[in-house]
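Example record

One chain of 283 residues, shown exactly as stored in the release files.
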Amino acid sequence: MKKRLLDVFDRLSIAWMRHAPWPLAEAYAGFVARRVAPKLYTAATQRARANIARLRPDLDAEAALTQMWDNTARSFLEVPRAIRLFDEGRVEVQGAGHLADRPLIVAALHLGNWEMVGLAMVRAGAPPVAFYQPPSSDLRTRTVVAERIKGGGRLLPLGRDAARPAMNALLRDRDVLLVFPDEHQHGRVAAPSLGRGPRQGGNIEYAVRLARATGAAIVVGYCRRLPGTRFRVEYLAPMEVPRTDDREADVRAGTAALDARIEPIVLANLPQWLMLPDWKPEG
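Predicted structure tokens for this chain:
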């Protein structure tokens, strides 16, 4: 029953956000963020409150939770309008010159409105090829897929045979591969470490293995939400993965280096991190 109600809510929200005048759409997004989302996902609020205490005890927990829901709800509701928000000049981009080299992997974070990272890549002449893990709702899946394709990206299916098309994209097609190292799979958030010890497995290691195998550089990309429904996307300087005779040592060193780059970004912007409620200290 709850799933049916959520599907109806999603359908109405997507239609409203796509067609309503922006002041009304923005007001609706704010109402959902303040009044609806926290009540629908009370367990997530409790987990996030505990994680704020663990990871950033200096923050006002209640203010951080308000910011978390404001960012999370708005980011999902903004999907049908993401391209228009970009066209309206609401996104500033820093470090786009780092996207010029090939082969290249962009390690993006689920911060701010993370959809803007891929859109900024398209506008910089580096349209992304990305793996995709569908959300639980079929409607959300269709909406996100349609908007990402409309925005200029290309999607690759997840699965055991994902390595070959990824390597073809990097080496044969000279595309830019977009990977999210802070993905949530099998009940755990793979990265960053945040005190849990060296990261192994997941997208963070997969990106490093691909980089070592293809000679690709890795660029960290992330988005921050600014006041007034504005965004700043930043791409850091490329990092190279070691390529010695010891493959596994190279992977460990590269994974540790990538983890060290993304951890301070997540901590500095913790209330805007999508994975805050799902992170586990033992994960």
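Notes: The chain has a mean pLDDT of 87.
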